Amino acid sequence: MSAPRLNLYDLTREQLRGQLVRWELNPVHVARLWNYLYIELAASLDAMPELPPKLRARLAAETHLGVLPTALETASGDGFTHKYLLALSDAEKIETVLMRFTGRVTACVSSQVGCAMGCVFCATGQMGYTRHLTPGEIVAQAVHVARALRPSTLNSQLSTRRDHAPARLRNIVLMGMGEPLHNYDAVMTAIDILRDETGLALGAERITLSTVGVVPGILRLAREMRPLHLAVSLHAATQAERAALVPAAKKWPLDELMAACRTYSEMTGRRIFYEWTLIEGKNDSEAHARAVGELLRGLDAQVNLIPLNPTDGYDGAPTRSAAANAFQHVLATEFKIPSTVRQRRGIDIAAGCGQLAVAESAG
User: What's the number of domains the chain is made of?
Assistant: First the structure.
């Protein structure tokens, strides 16, 4: 059986250089190849005509460019959100979302097919876990969005609005399908590729990783001093309430999670963003807000309040604006903790994590 072909998106620039050396080719050509991959966003070897013939022959024989074809694309009615269901080589599908806010474009990318964490209100959690994504499959999602932002029908639609989208991808959030810290090594390799200054050149301050609370991964991030934004999904301020919503809390209890968060903040000096999905009548009262305030007392923290994205698999409703505002007021006035209520984007196109994949498979 022949060895599997290398996915060029799997390799950092240094790894790509090493591959050329093993092929006994001049590594100087790495710069041109990398430019084709991440500046010109070439979609095939045919779109790289300036590479030397010997290198092109090796690439054709032993590698492939892991471009992910679009299985399904939807756009929200307001034009701010595009969701892509992308097909993998093994026929699995993952979701990538392009979200446009005033002055910036963000790509929400997946790190796994499905998810093993099983959060009861999450469509991806309801799917269960299938497999990890490779670094290249994560990188390819960012490339897909960057390519979509090139002058095109999408860009012309956006440019007709007053706050038209920047032409270049600037922000990545690892908040799509999957738990990023469950696939730690692949995710960090992908981030290294995305941050490379000669490629997509995404700044660390523009990369956010969201975790349900995988304690070993948080501590490893702290030890490695990874310069990115960390978001931790809380959703409840007591162990019993959290375990009912987030089964992973049974493995990593709330007190262990908060100890890991304190260690992370002390070692890195970085603020943690704590995510709280607001579910009407479940965790959105002023008493819940006070419990959050007590839990985060003394920490450099910001709370991101996220009205629930309803799913067929969970009997819950999003909190109303008045309750969300009251929650914010308690955090601000009684605990001096900053918070934001996340804008709900793409609800009309099932833009919550996993929703499009579930809808497509059911159809």
Answer: 2
Clarify whether residues 78 and 206 are in a common domain: yes
Q: Are residues 57 and 86 in the same domain?
A: no
CATH number of domain containing 36: 1.10.150.530
Residues 46, 95: one domain? no
Question: 257, 272 in Cβ contact below 8 A?
Answer: no
Residues 112 and 157 in one domain: yes
In this structure, the answer to whether residues 137 and 74 fall within a common structural domain is: yes
Question: Tens-of-pLDDT digits for all 363 residues of the chain?
Answer: 567 899 999 999 999 999 999 999 999 999 999 999 999 999 999 999 999 999 999 999 999 999 999 999 999 887 789 999 999 999 999 999 999 887 789 999 999 999 999 998 888 888 999 999 999 999 999 999 999 998 754 555 554 444 444 468 999 999 999 999 999 999 999 999 999 999 999 999 999 999 999 999 999 999 999 999 999 999 999 999 999 999 999 999 999 999 999 999 999 999 999 999 999 999 999 999 999 999 999 999 999 999 998 888 888 888 888 999 999 999 999 999 999 998 655 444 454 454 444 444 433
CA distance 155 to 171: 17
**Angle between helix 215-224 and 254-268 (nearest 10):** 10
**Residue 51 and residue 78 in one domain:** no
Q: Is residue 119 annotated as a catalytic residue, yes or no?
A: no
- Its pTM stands at 0.90
**Structural domain contains residue 1:** no
For the chain, where are the alpha helices, taking DSSP H only?
13-22, 30-38, 53-62, 123-127, 135-148, 153-159, 184-195, 215-224, 239-245, 254-268, 286-295, 321-335, 355-362
Residue 103 in domain: yes
* Range(s) of the domain holding residue 17: 6-64
Candidates 95, 137, 179, 275; catalytic one:
95
In degrees rounded to 5, what are phi and psi of residue 134?
Answer: -80, 165
